[in-house]
Amino acid sequence: MIRVLLVDDHALVRMGFRMLLADARFEVVGEVDTGEQACVDYPRLKPDVVVMDLSMPGIGGLEAVRRLLAQDPKARVLALSAHEDTAHPQRVLRAGALGYLRKRSAPDTLIAAVSAVARGQRYVDAATAQALALAQLEGETNPADTLSEREFSVFIQLARGQSVAQIAQSLNLSPSTVGTHLYHVKQKLGASNQSELTLVALRWGLIQA
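^ thats the sequence. predicted structure below, dont judge the formating
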């Protein structure tokens, strides 16, 4: 039986996933609503697969994936996202997630994705795989592609309205370090303030309105 840890800040979403997984005879060994709590509970629960939402308060799913893989390089993570951009799947797969699934995918796709990831196989839903392939073929570039992994994390949290102090606390960085990242983000994206960063993120589908 595949043991699954669900990480999503929406209780209704977790309930729906739990019901789908139970119908497929998977065991949901835990449910948490933040990436921070997932990192705390993971060693105790020892799930076969972590189903991780990317858009959550606090450190968010992308940073949580990095921390889980730092704890356990063999951790198997399936990332979930409501975003339909190419930056998020590229970043989270590069961070070590084995799978990526859009939340709009058909319900049975979740079962196929969890099964594949539990076997240690890569899984990317068809729509995302096509978008990634087309972006590569057409040489499409996203402004966020110029950012380092840490700059991208800071950028997304800033775009969601987090303050420098809040970001520093969630990412375990000093405010001055976050300020340095913010300076570089603004320079690379041609933005002069937080509102303009939010507009860039919205325009490229990196956050939801």
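The CA atoms of residues 159 and 196 lie 9 Å apart.
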